[in-house]
Amino acid sequence: MNQRRNKRRFMNEINVVPYIDVMLVLLIIFMITAPLIQPSQIELPEIGQSSAPPVEPLEIIIAANGKLALRDRAETSEEQPVEHEQLIELVQAKQAQRINQPVVIAADKNVRYEEVIRIMDLLQQHRIHKIGLLTQSK
C-alpha cells in the first residue's frame, strides 16, 4: 500500500526550459530586425508669435458690506464704485473696447456665497463670457 502512494507523488517544479528557448528565439529575431528599422522623422506643429499681449482682466469687487466696485486692470488700478444696475452696462462697454477681456470676481471672504453666484448668474444671462473667481494665495 505504501508503494502506491510513493509512485503518485506530485511534481512541484515547473519546467522553464521551453520558456527560455522561446525567449532566445525572440531575442535573435529582435537583434536581426532592429538594425533594419529606419527611424522616422516627426513633423512637429509650429505656432506663431501672438501679436497682441494677453488682456488684463476686468475685476468686479464685492465688499463685505455688499457694495460693488469695478477695476479695469488694463487701464488703471483704481476702483470705480458701481450700482448693481450699472454693472452690466459698464462691463459690456469695457469688453466692447477690448475683445476677449476676462472678467474676474473678487469677493471679500465674509460675503455670502449666494451674492457671488448672483453676480455670476447676472453676467452669464447677459452673455458675458470668461468669468472667473479671484483668490488670494497664503
Automatic annotation (TrEMBL):
Highest rank taxon of the organism: Bacteria
Places the protein is found: Cell membrane
Protein's GO biological process: cell division; protein transport
One Pfam family linked to the record: ExbD
InterPro entries, alphabetized: ExbD, Tol-Pal_TolR
Keywords, alphabetical: Cell cycle, Cell division, Cell inner membrane, Cell membrane, Membrane, Protein transport, Transmembrane, Transmembrane helix, Transport
Transmembrane segments: 16-37
Gene Ontology cellular-component annotations: plasma membrane
Molecular function via GO: transmembrane transporter activity
Membrane disposition: Single-pass membrane protein; Single-pass type II membrane protein
Annotated family: Belongs to the ExbD/TolR family.
Family matches, as NCBIfam families: tolR
Protein name per its UniProtKB record: Biopolymer transport protein ExbD
